[in-house]
């Protein structure tokens, strides 16, 4: 008998030790015995210890924290868990969930994408070439002070919100804002329009491709022979034939004045320009002085003056089409590594070679940019710095929303954004310094050929004040000899490949939008849908690029309005939902985010709204209401149309609630979101429909208290009966070990802690 008792004690000790090693989420029977009750108390103490360590040893009393109820999602004090019968299958929700999963995505985990994916997709490399000359106009190197402050204060928080939403939803901007609330459909459409405008006017840069075509022409063509003063220099590196007094120049041909189409199709500006050009060509002294005995630099003289522009832009659009159709996954998985490291290596070596070979002609860039501290006292300098920061780091065209709409990925948001901003600033300064010095050298070479003199700092500032001629000076620099031409070819490949990082994401977003607009496309082959969608996408980008060639400043004018409506949308929603999403995707910084949750709410809702409201007022004061009316009209008209259609369905309070149409694409992220809600709100409750009326919390709280008292009374009676039947509880060695270890760690973390202190 004693032997059996010893065996039972040993087995109970072993089983108890095994019970301690089990997960705390293991189910417990309806009538727990004394040992299981002790186990539950131990689990509570371990949970308390974990939370104390997690939140820096600060108390986290959920039941008494009123501030937590204001910010965290699904915190309903005392709300019971109501068990509902399984609802019948909703066909529409089932179809939406199945259809959403059937849309093809780029599977891009962080290990495959690389740590610089967001850097290449978010950085607007095309604008880095003109950035030194923007600095020159607005305070020189002092311009970096407001630029860096704008990046930290404005760009980073907005990109953080965009990146969080992108990773949460994985849907295009139009669908994203529409699922938030139907009346915000116009905001999503405005974001997409600005994406096309920014990509076509800034990111889709054809000038490097134009120089590449010129390189190929120079390899197969002969240089035009110099025939003396029979040609006149009308523009830098461009030559226009001389026509007689009774003739006029039309697309490279000298036509008589009585020609039928002399005034047909011409504007007043073109007519006056032709008349002034004809007058200058008729004067021998002006013609001889302007020619200056310099042979033409460009060997290809097109009959139509825009032939280079059209051919280069068409070449880029065709290349973008084939890359997005066939090699998009290969690019993001393999080619992107080559572009990233190749850009660093080539730019660094070229910069060192330019400084070593040209010396003062290249280093004069520092004096040309200069430093004017008094420019910082002007409001325009700060506004320009903020707008350029938003443009360069992809905030205006919502590049990070594009990343989420085209990729199925999961990574550390906060660290990834910090890495992207630091790396982006490094590449911005590297590229801008390199191309700025190359521009200075090209301008020096051009002036020595034409006027046989050295340029001063003021001369350089006059020549590059408008960045239109920057690429012409780069052309002169790269076309010195064959080695420089091949170097330019390498830069063209790297430059265009870097541009494609964001252009391909935009194309993928267009394909995803087509899938959601036309539901039947999910049953068709993926290649066919990509082919048709990319044909229309690339044609549309090319058309906008042609249309906006003379309006490259339009994205800069639209920037304050587009960012303002996005921030306004984020601020309207109930912050506790958005805070839960932020906590879900920032696991390592939850304690810090929780500690500063009030500041985050105030900053997003009031500070950012105030800053961009001031920028809009300054823009209206400078340029009038023209841009404001054309921008906000789209949002207003579509909002009214959606209100009429949906009878003013206002979903902002519960708009972040995961539903069949609006939830994380990745199942792991969705489970983490629910787990985070349970951890923050104290208990996991069912997320109901957004249109369900709010329950009477006072009634629920009173009923819950009555049920709780009855349940505790029944539990005390059952425990008393068990103790009478089984006798006193004997503390095992494992229980004693864990209890002593727990109090030892608590003393190390918080000093002394009373054993009778309760957590739950």
UniProtKB/TrEMBL annotation:
<keyword id="KW-0472">Membrane</keyword>
<feature type="transmembrane region" description="Helical">
    <location>
        <begin position="308"/>
        <end position="328"/>
    </location>
</feature>
<feature type="transmembrane region" description="Helical">
    <location>
        <begin position="528"/>
        <end position="548"/>
    </location>
</feature>
<feature type="region of interest" description="Disordered">
    <location>
        <begin position="689"/>
        <end position="728"/>
    </location>
</feature>
<dbReference type="GO" id="GO:0005283">
    <property type="term" value="F:amino acid:sodium symporter activity"/>
</dbReference>
<feature type="compositionally biased region" description="Basic and acidic residues">
    <location>
        <begin position="695"/>
        <end position="728"/>
    </location>
</feature>
<feature type="transmembrane region" description="Helical">
    <location>
        <begin position="381"/>
        <end position="403"/>
    </location>
</feature>
<dbReference type="InterPro" id="IPR037272">
    <property type="entry name" value="SNS_sf"/>
</dbReference>
<dbReference type="GO" id="GO:0015179">
    <property type="term" value="F:L-amino acid transmembrane transporter activity"/>
</dbReference>
<feature type="transmembrane region" description="Helical">
    <location>
        <begin position="183"/>
        <end position="202"/>
    </location>
</feature>
<feature type="transmembrane region" description="Helical">
    <location>
        <begin position="423"/>
        <end position="448"/>
    </location>
</feature>
<feature type="transmembrane region" description="Helical">
    <location>
        <begin position="116"/>
        <end position="134"/>
    </location>
</feature>
<feature type="region of interest" description="Disordered">
    <location>
        <begin position="1"/>
        <end position="33"/>
    </location>
</feature>
<feature type="compositionally biased region" description="Basic and acidic residues">
    <location>
        <begin position="1"/>
        <end position="24"/>
    </location>
</feature>
<dbReference type="GO" id="GO:0089718">
    <property type="term" value="P:amino acid import across plasma membrane"/>
</dbReference>
<feature type="transmembrane region" description="Helical">
    <location>
        <begin position="141"/>
        <end position="163"/>
    </location>
</feature>
<keyword id="KW-0812">Transmembrane</keyword>
<protein>
    <submittedName>
        <fullName>Uncharacterized protein</fullName>
    </submittedName>
</protein>
<feature type="transmembrane region" description="Helical">
    <location>
        <begin position="602"/>
        <end position="621"/>
    </location>
</feature>
<feature type="transmembrane region" description="Helical">
    <location>
        <begin position="486"/>
        <end position="507"/>
    </location>
</feature>
<feature type="transmembrane region" description="Helical">
    <location>
        <begin position="627"/>
        <end position="644"/>
    </location>
</feature>
<feature type="transmembrane region" description="Helical">
    <location>
        <begin position="340"/>
        <end position="369"/>
    </location>
</feature>
<feature type="transmembrane region" description="Helical">
    <location>
        <begin position="554"/>
        <end position="575"/>
    </location>
</feature>
<keyword id="KW-0769">Symport</keyword>
<dbReference type="GO" id="GO:0005886">
    <property type="term" value="C:plasma membrane"/>
</dbReference>
<keyword id="KW-1133">Transmembrane helix</keyword>
<keyword id="KW-0813">Transport</keyword>
<dbReference type="InterPro" id="IPR000175">
    <property type="entry name" value="Na/ntran_symport"/>
</dbReference>
């Amino acid at each position: 008998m004693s032997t059996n008792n010893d065996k039972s004690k040993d087995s109970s000790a072993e089983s108890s030790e095994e019970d301690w090693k089990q997960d705390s989420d293991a189910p417990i029977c309806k009538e727990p015995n004394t040992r299981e009750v002790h186990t539950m108390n131990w689990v509570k103490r371990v949970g308390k210890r974990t939370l104390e360590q997690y939140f820096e040893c600060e108390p986290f009393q959920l039941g008494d924290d009123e501030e937590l109820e204001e910010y965290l999602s699904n915190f309903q004090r005392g709300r019971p868990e109501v068990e509902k019968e399984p609802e019948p299958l909703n066909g529409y929700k089932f179809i939406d969930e199945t259809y959403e999963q059937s849309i093809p995505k780029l599977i891009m985990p962080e290990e495959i994408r690389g740590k610089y994916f967001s850097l290449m997709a978010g950085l607007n490399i095309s604008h880095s070439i003109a950035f030194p000359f923007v600095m020159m106009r607005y305070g020189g190197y002092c311009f970096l002070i407001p630029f860096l402050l704008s990046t930290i204060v404005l760009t980073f928080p907005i990109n953080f919100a965009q990146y969080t939403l992108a990773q949460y939803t994985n849907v295009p901007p139009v669908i994203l804002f529409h699922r938030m609330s139907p009346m915000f459909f116009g905001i999503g459409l405005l974001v997409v329009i600005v994406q096309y405008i920014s990509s076509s006017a800034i990111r889709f840069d054809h000038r490097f491709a134009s120089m590449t075509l010129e390189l190929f022409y120079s390899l197969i063509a002969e240089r035009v022979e110099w025939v003396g003063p029979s040609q006149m220099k009308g523009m830098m590196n461009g030559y226009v034939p001389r026509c007689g007094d009774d003739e006029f120049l039309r697309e490279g041909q000298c036509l008589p004045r009585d020609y039928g189409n002399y005034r047909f199709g011409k504007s007043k500006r073109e007519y006056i320009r032709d008349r002034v050009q004809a007058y200058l060509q008729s004067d021998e002294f002006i013609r001889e002085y302007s020619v200056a005995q310099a042979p033409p630099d460009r060997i290809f003289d097109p009959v139509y003056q825009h032939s280079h522009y059209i051919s280069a832009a068409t070449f880029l659009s065709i290349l973008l089409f084939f890359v997005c159709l066939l090699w998009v996954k290969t690019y993001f998985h393999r080619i992107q590594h080559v572009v990233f490291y190749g850009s660093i290596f080539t730019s660094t070596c070229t910069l060192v070679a330019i400084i070593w070979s040209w010396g003062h002609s290249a280093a004069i860039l520092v004096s040309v940019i200069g430093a004017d501290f008094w420019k910082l006292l002007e409001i325009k300098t700060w506004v320009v710095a903020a707008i350029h920061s938003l443009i360069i780091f992809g905030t205006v065209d919502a590049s990070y929303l594009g990343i989420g709409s085209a990729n199925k990925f999961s990574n550390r948001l906060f660290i990834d954004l910090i890495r992207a901003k630091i790396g982006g600033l490094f590449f911005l300064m590297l590229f801008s310094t390199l191309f700025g010095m190359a521009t200075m050298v090209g301008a020096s070479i051009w002036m020595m050929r034409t006027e046989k003199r050295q340029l001063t700092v003021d001369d350089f500032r006059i020549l590059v004040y408008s960045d239109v001629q920057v690429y012409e000076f780069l052309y002169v620099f790269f076309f010195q000899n064959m080695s420089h031409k091949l170097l330019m070819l390498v830069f063209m490949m790297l430059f265009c490949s870097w541009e494609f990082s964001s252009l391909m994401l935009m194309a993928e977003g267009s394909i995803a939008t087509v899938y959601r607009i036309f539901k039947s496309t999910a049953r068709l082959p993926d290649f066919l849908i990509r082919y048709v969608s990319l044909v229309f996408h690339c044609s549309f980008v090319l058309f906008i690029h042609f249309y906006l060639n003379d309006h490259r400043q339009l994205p800069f004018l639209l920037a304050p309005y587009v960012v303002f409506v996005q921030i306004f949308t984020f601020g309207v929603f109930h912050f506790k939902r958005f805070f839960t999403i932020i906590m879900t995707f920032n696991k390592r910084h939850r304690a810090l985010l929780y500690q500063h949750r009030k500041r985050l709410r105030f900053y997003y809702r009031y500070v950012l709204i105030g800053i961009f409201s001031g920028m809009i007022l300054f823009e209206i004061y400078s340029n009038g209401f023209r841009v404001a009316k054309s921008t906000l009209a789209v949002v207003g008209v579509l909002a009214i149309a959606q209100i009429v259609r949906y009878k003013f369905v206002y979903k902002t309070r519960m708009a972040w609630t995961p539903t069949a149409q609006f939830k994380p694409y990745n199942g792991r992220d969705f489970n983490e979101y629910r787990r985070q809600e349970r951890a923050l709100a104290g208990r996991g409750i069912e997320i109901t429909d957004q249109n369900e009326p709010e329950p009477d919390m006072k009634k629920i709280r009173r009923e819950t208290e009555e049920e709780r008292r009855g349940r505790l009374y029944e539990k005390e009676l059952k425990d008393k009966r068990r103790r009478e039947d089984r006798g006193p509880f004997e503390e095992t060695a494992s229980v004693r070990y864990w209890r002593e270890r727990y109090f030892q760690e608590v003393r190390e973390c918080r000093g002394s802690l009373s054993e009778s202190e309760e957590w739950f």
